[in-house]
């Protein structure tokens, strides 16, 4: 049987990978500490309040993680303007003709599990596909909602200008009740996203065998040789 | 030549006439400065202002309400508050406290409104029903909305007493059968001070009104139109049980040992962390206590829609806009479970639908495996 040749391609640059894993850790820390804050466990302790600060520490972790999450996000937005084609904001915007075609292809082939009669190499995305791009766009919006509501709740206990910048959110939504509700519901958005995201990453790795999972560690994916211009040809053209 | 026989007394003159000493007056000024959160150097300014300012006429309207705001007000810390600022001297119209009634009372109000147009302060207690042409609340044959618009037209400023006038309170809770509406949604072109709470703290009410009469302008307001001096902090942030919160020591039920120990009431539904008010520092009944000190969680009475924001005795996250009383965590868990099941089904589906592709790939990979050149 004839086998296929693949080329190694740098897809995720180092800053993108660092962003991804810091983001993972932050979301994990924020969700776990968030659940604890929403519904603290009963503490079996005879200590006086003077000698305990357990809930304060949980909140502290939440706030620290929130700041890291926020600045990490800003750096990623910056990188979407200076990074490579896969990190670019253009790759995250699925609403143009070419990407929309890919969107329909992914929905048909990967979500509804239909098979193309004649599979075309061009249909296989090298970076993230258009549906994934769309899901990151939604995640970005959920993250913004979390940041705005989170800092709004935090603003009144802070003296720093940064969280204070978000204090207009509370009156806009009518009070802390609503802000807190939305913050809590946004967290569920992250959890649901993670379930789908992790599954689809494994799914693609298993189905396509192009190192989808390990690409977020090493940065490399494998692309069919036919899709890559020969270095010699490119040099000749010039 | 018409004789102006209605030369108004200043506040100071009224106070002295009522039999209070100057010492009482200065004490009162000091109290007020303290409530407003002013420096001690401001005491003199308040006193001076009350000495020089002729009393400002006040019309106090009652619409859909329970009069708890008035009750709270007349029990304010210093007797001068109830006695002088409102009850006997300044209050030109209030259904509950005035001696006049019927046509006389309405005529008195009309006279004040005409004479002091643009000068009087309109205090509103209660929400205004807009449903069914406002027929749910009528006074002297006129609907609350009609009366309110008439009184608001000539007012210098409007004070919205309590959650009813500020947010609609209980009568505006879903399904709001009477169409109860807070006043800031009806009148937009007048300065409105919101003093939410059910009722607001008497000292807070006194502080607001003394600020208006003593300085002739509104106190500093936050974005929701509440005086910053009293609504700038959450009950939670000024609560004496806060150390238990930070320590993670919570009452699990109202009858457990933790509750007896005075631990934080967060887990039994205290809404202090979402509620802006002065209960934690000014307290109630002349500073005796406040709900949390008495062992009951805050119900968030000074926040908008506090009746509709989930149960008082539980910490849950209600999904806004959902009529069903399900909390966000339940919905989240069910959705997550459904997603996991869906994902598992999808994986099985993929195994079947993509079997050809998988098989070919596997064959190619096995061919390579056999051809490894050691």
Task: Using brief descriptors, characterize the structure shown.
heterodimer; A: 238 residues; mainly alpha; Fumarate Reductase Cytochrome B subunit; 9 helices; 4% strand; elongated; B: 374 residues; alpha/beta; Rossmann fold; two-stranded antiparallel ribbon; 14 helices; 9 strands; disordered N terminus
**Shape category of chain A:** elongated
The most extensive contact between chains is: A-B, 50 and 59 residues
Mean pLDDT over the residues of chain A: 86
* CATH class value of chain A: Mainly Alpha
Walkthrough of the structure:
The complex is a heterodimer of chains A (238) and B (374). Chain A has 238 residues and is mostly helical. Chain A has a single domain, classed as Fumarate Reductase Cytochrome B subunit, CATH 1.20.950. Helix content of chain A is 62%, strand content 4%. Chain A contains nine helices and two strands, in the order βααααααααβα. A two-stranded antiparallel sheet of chain A has the order 1-2. The two termini of chain A are 37 Å apart. The model of chain A has no long low-confidence stretch (mean pLDDT 86). Chain B has 374 residues and is α/β, with parallel strands linked by helices. Helix content of chain B is 40%, strand content 8%. Chain B is built from 14 helices and nine strands. A five-stranded parallel beta sheet of chain B has the order 2-1-3-7-9, with helices on both faces. The termini of chain B are far apart. Residues 1-5 of chain B have low confidence and may be disordered. Chains A and B meet through α2 and α7 of A and α11, α13 and α14 of B.
């Amino acid at each position: 049987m004839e086998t296929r040749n693949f080329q190694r391609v740098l897809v995720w640059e180092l800053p993108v990978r660092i962003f991804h894993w810091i983001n993972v850790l932050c979301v994990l820390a924020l969700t776990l500490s968030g659940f604890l804050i929403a519904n603290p466990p009963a503490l079996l302790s005879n200590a006086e309040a003077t000698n305990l600060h357990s809930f304060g520490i949980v909140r502290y972790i939440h706030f620290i993680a929130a700041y890291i999450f926020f600045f990490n996000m800003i750096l990623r937005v910056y990188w979407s303007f200076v990074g490579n084609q896969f990190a670019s904001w253009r790759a995250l915007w699925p609403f143009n003709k070419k990407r929309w075609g890919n969107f329909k292809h992914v929905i048909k082939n990967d979500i509804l599990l239909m098979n193309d009669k004649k599979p075309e190499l061009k249909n296989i995305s090298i970076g993230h596909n258009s549906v994934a791009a769309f899901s990151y766009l939604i995640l970005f919006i959920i993250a913004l909602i979390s940041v705005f509501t989170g800092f709004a709740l935090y603003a009144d206990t802070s003296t720093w200008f940064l969280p204070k910048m978000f204090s207009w959110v509370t009156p806009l939504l009518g009070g802390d009740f609503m802000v807190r509700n939305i913050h809590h519901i946004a967290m569920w958005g992250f959890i649901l996203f993670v379930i789908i995201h992790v599954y689809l990453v494994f799914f693609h790795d298993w189905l396509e065998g192009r190192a989808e999972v390990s690409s977020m560690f090493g940065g490399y994916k494998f692309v069919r040789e036919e899709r890559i211009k020969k270095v010699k040809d490119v040099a000749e053209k010039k | 030549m018409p004789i102006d026989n209605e030369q108004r007394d200043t506040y100071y003159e009224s106070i002295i006439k009522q039999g209070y000493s100057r010492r009482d007056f200065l004490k009162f000024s000091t109290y007020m400065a303290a409530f407003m959160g002013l420096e001690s150097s401001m005491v003199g300014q308040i006193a001076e202002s009350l000495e020089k300012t002729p009393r400002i006429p006040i019309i106090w309207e009652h619409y859909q309400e329970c009069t708890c705001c008035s009750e709270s007000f007349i029990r304010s810390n210093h007797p001068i508050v109830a006695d002088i600022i409102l009850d006997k001297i300044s209050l030109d119209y209030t259904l509950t406290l005035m001696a006049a009634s019927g046509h006389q009372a309405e005529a008195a109000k009309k006279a004040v409104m005409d004479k002091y147009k643009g000068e009087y302060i309109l205090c509103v207690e209660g929400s205004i029903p807009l449903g069914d042409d406002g027929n749910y609340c009528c006074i002297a044959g006129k609907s609350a909305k009609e009366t309110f618009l008439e009184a608001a037209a000539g007012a210098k400023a409007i004070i919205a007493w309590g959650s009813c006038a500020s947010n609609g309170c209980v009568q505006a809770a879903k399904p709001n059968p009477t169409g109860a509406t807070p006043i800031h949604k009806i009148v937009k072109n007048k300065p409105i001070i919101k003093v939410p709470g059910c009722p607001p703290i008497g000292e807070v009410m006194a502080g607001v009104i003394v600020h208006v009469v003593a300085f002739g302008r509104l106190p500093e307001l936050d974005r929701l139109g509440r005086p910053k001096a009293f609504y700038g902090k959450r009950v939670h942030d000024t609560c004496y049980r806060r150390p238990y919160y930070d320590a993670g020591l919570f009452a699990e039920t109202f009858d457990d040992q933790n509750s007896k120990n005075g631990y934080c009431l967060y887990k039994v539904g205290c809404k202090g962390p979402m509620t802006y008010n002065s209960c934690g520092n000014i307290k109630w009944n002349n500073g005796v206590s406040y709900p949390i000190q008495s062992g009951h969680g805050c119900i968030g009475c000074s926040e908008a829609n506090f009746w509709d924001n989930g149960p008082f005795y539980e910490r849950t996250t209600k999904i806004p806009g959902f009529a069903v009383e399900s909390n966000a965590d339940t919905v989240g868990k069910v959705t997550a479970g459904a997603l996991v099941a869906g994902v598992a089904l999808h994986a099985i589906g993929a195994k079947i639908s993509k079997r050809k592709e998988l098989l070919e790939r596997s064959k190619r990979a096995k061919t390579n495996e056999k051809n490894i050149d050691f």
